[in-house]
Amino acid sequence: MTQPRYEDWMLLDLSPGAELSEVNQALHYRRALYQPGALATYNLLEEDERIRMLDRIDEAYRRITGNEPPPNRGPQPVPSAREDQTEAPTGPPPDPRTEPGALLSHHRRAKGLSLEQLAAETKIRAVLLQQLETE
Asked: What is the largest CA-CA distance in the chain?
């Protein structure tokens, strides 16, 4: 097993020796930053640079944990207007600290807006709004 390098920890924005749960969370967050169409890298990186960065993130995870990273779910498909639930949610809104995407979805649905309506209003593509809501 290859020992983790300081750069591996920095790439995942972690302190050396972080708990496994923190490493897994950092992997998920870093991968999301470099997914196709992600707001953080949209039009900033060429496709090959984006893919190289995802490979570096996975390699850092391997060195830190000694395991293969979990399969990447990739971008989730955007539901069509018919599939998109716009009905008002029941119950209290989710906690923004633990479920920020669910909170966005909750408020969008509380206003009775579909992803396509919100995309037209905000000028943010529906696929990006969906990625934010699904974290």
From this structure: 52
pLDDT at 82: 41
The token pair at 40 is 């953080």
As averages over each run of 10 residues, the pLDDT of the chain (135 residues) reads 88 92 90 80 80 93 90 53 61 85 87 86 86 84
Alpha carbon distances (Å) from 117 to 44, 95, 130, 133: 27, 25, 12, 15
- Looking at residue 78, what is its pLDDT? 43
